[in-house]
Amino acid sequence: MSDASHFTVRSVAHLVRPAGLTASTVDALATGIAQAPGPSLFYHAVQHQLRLPDADEPPPDDFSAWLGGVLQLRETAERCAFMVQTRNRSEAELREALLDLMRSIPGRSRHESPEGGEFVFLIADSVTVPVSPPLEDVNAVIAALLDAGPAAWFLHLIEEPWQRGDEGSLIGWLRARGEGRLSDLLAELAHAGLPIEAARQRLARQLRHRQLGRRIAEAAGAPERERRVAAREAVSGIVRRLSPRSRRP
Question: What is the pTM of this model?
Answer without folding.
Answer: 0.80
